[in-house]
Amino acid sequence: MGPDWANALGGDGMAADGAGFRRLLEETPVGIAVAQDGLLKFINAAGRALFGWPVRELESRPLIELVDAGERPRLIGIHRRWLRQGILPDHCELRAIGREGDIRHWRVGMNPAEWQGRPAVLAAISDITEQVRVREEMRRMALHDVLTGLPNRLLLEDRICQAIAAARRHGRGFAVIFLDLDGFKPINDSAGHRVGDHVLREIAGRLRACTREMDTVARVGGDEFVVLLQDVESRCECLPAARKLIEAAGSPVPYPGGVARLGASAGLSFYPDDGDGLDSLMRVADESMYVAKRAGKNQVRCATCHHASGHGGPDCA
Predict the structure, then answer these.
(1) How far apart are the first and last CA of the chain?
(2) Band (18; pLDDT cuts 50, 70, 90)
(3) Is the CB of residue 255 less than 8 Å from the CB of residue 275?
(4) 155-175: average pLDDT
(5) Is the pLDDT confidence value at 316 over 80?
(6) In this predicted structure, what is the pLDDT of residue 105?
(7) Cα-based distances in Å from 91 to 5, 9, 71, 297
(8) Is CATH 3.30.930.10 what the domain over 2-133 is classified as, yes or no?
(9) Are 29 and 141 in contact (CB under 8 A)?
(10) pTM score, two decimals?
(11) What is 147-306's CATH number?
């Protein structure tokens, strides 16, 4: 709607300040604004409703004050390009600031116009806040586990690939910890899926609380989690974190009518020692986790602990 209105009303440099045309703009049900020299010169009733401000607080106000701080460099770039090259984008999406400080998402169509005999920009504004919210929610659902809210395998793999690229640039390491709950299936079978879901959500929260903001905790299977530990120098630096994760997962989880007592087995791979790609790092961590299970569970294993023999030895931790 935005660009179509802008083209229909703006034409090629159409004067936007004639009395009849201004009345048409005022009565148009779409938000219409005229900007000149970086200032808002006119905004119709529909546009004022989008902001929630009276006309006296809007007209002659710098446009830069009406958009979110993160959008200002882009808006400045659009303005400069128009001044230097006479080029305007057909449309763009902007985050605007309402009178109460609330953030709204707008789709803005732009077209050249004239205001008081000088070049100006005629803009048609549509509020797409709800569409953006739905779009972001769909994206979030595509990249996160529905039950726990943690990143899913797709997002985890993307972040591991990003970690590989960053590690190659900066010469730092990172670790992948594959963690599998011990004893979850009997609880899920005996107490029911509702209790099982409660246990998984509780443990997911504990694992997230054990890690730093830069790290990633993902749920990749029924009772399987993977933790990406960013920016670490050695495998030994990761082991205390792995033990902490096991301890958090092994603490009793109360639920109505009982207490779930679990354990956890973890396998660790370290970049670049155990692999230089996503598949190799995930495989080594997964294999190490199964070594930990065969060795008695409730422990962490890494590649150096079982590379030579392929079976359990002293716990890495």
Answers:
(1) 61
(2) low
(3) no
(4) 95
(5) no
(6) 94
(7) 11, 15, 14, 58
(8) no
(9) no
(10) 0.71
(11) 3.30.70.270
